[in-house]
TrEMBL record:
Taxonomic source organism: Corynebacterium meridianum
UniProt keyword list: Glycosyltransferase, Transferase
EC number, UniProt record: 2.4.1.83
Coiled-coil ranges (or none): none
Superkingdom in the source lineage: Bacteria
Gene3D superfamilies: Spore Coat Polysaccharide Biosynthesis Protein SpsA, Chain A
Domain Glycosyltransferase 2-like: 10-174
InterPro entries: DPM1-like, Glyco_trans_2-like, Nucleotide-diphossugar_trans
Name of the featured protein: dolichyl-phosphate beta-D-mannosyltransferase
Any matching Pfam family: Glycos_transf_2
Record's GO cellular component terms: membrane
UniProt GO BP: glycolipid biosynthetic process
Length: 265
């Protein structure tokens, strides 16, 4: 009997990852030889795209999608999702090119997908999860930010900013990809938040996140302020919706009791 994970596509966005690309693709092919890989390159000036073409030419399970310029991580994943949906993949995964997401742990995500989950997040902040080679200040910022996000949205997840994920195609098909926030890395929160609100089965599994050893991080510190401001706005709007729904139910109950009293009088 076939499983959803039998048709899995791992999407790896790249921008100036020439040194890391052969390492990450090799590790994926060794750890999970049954999955396909899609490298989405944003016209890397260091030749990552050309190298990706060479790697793909030697391996039929590796594919390359070239974009015209540096369009951001969200845009790369959205185009990768669409590419995968058009080719009937049943599971679409996100994975960083820099080795911070261990391909050797991909099976943890896929096992949960096969168990019925519709979104599985590789979490740094549940029991068993950990971060290697991060300065204490950065860990505190990330951990604290995720605590705030969880409290603001009430989503019940510990690591909504995490970028190591596996989605069933049905979840991706149900979301409007054009509406995803593109404010830095906040789209990861946006995707998880939409999935929770739509009632999908969202789970977390513990993973080990290792800071990149080759190249420089693309993360701009300014995203923290902008992201938390957006999350606050979402949280306030959500609480207003909840309050409005409660008040509407109270109103209906009051009106029902009034009608009952009139009939009984």
């Amino acid at each position: 009997m076939s499983k959803p994970s039998d048709a899995t596509l791992v999407i790896i966005p790249t921008y100036n990852e020439r040194e890391n690309l052969p390492l990450i693709t090799g590790r994926v092919r060794t750890a999970t030889p049954e999955v396909d890989i899609l490298v989405v390159d944003d016209a890397s000036p260091d030749g990552t795209g050309e190298l990706a073409d060479e790697i793909a030419a030697a391996d039929p399970r590796i594919h390359v999608l070239h974009r015209n310029g540096k369009g951001g991580l969200c845009g790369a994943y959205v185009e990768g999702f669409r590419w995968g949906l058009e080719r009937d993949y049943r599971v679409l995964c996100e994975m960083d090119a820099d080795g911070s997401h261990a391909p050797e742990q991909l099976h943890l995500l896929l096992d949960q997908i096969d168990d019925g989950a519709e979104l599985v997040i590789g979490s740094r902040y549940i029991n068993g999860g950990k971060v290697i080679n991060w300065p204490k200040q950065r860990w505190l910022l990330s951990k604290g930010g995720n605590i705030y996000i969880s409290l603001a949205l009430g989503a019940g997840l510990s690591d909504m900013t995490a970028g190591y994920r596996a989605y069933r195609r049905e979840l991706i098909e149900a979301l409007d990809l054009d509406e995803l926030s593109n404010a830095g890395y906040i789209f990861q929160v946006d995707l998880a938040w939409r999935a929770v609100r739509e009632g999908f089965d969202v789970r977390e599994v513990p993973i080990t996140f290792t800071e990149r050893e080759i190249g420089e991080s693309k993360l701009d510190g300014s995203f923290v302020k902008d992201s938390l401001a957006q999350v606050t706005a979402w949280g306030v709007a959500h609480r207003r919706e909840q309050l409005s729904a409660v008040l509407e139910e109270v109103k209906k109950e009051i009106e029902f009791r009034r009608r009952q009293r009139r009939r009984n009088s």
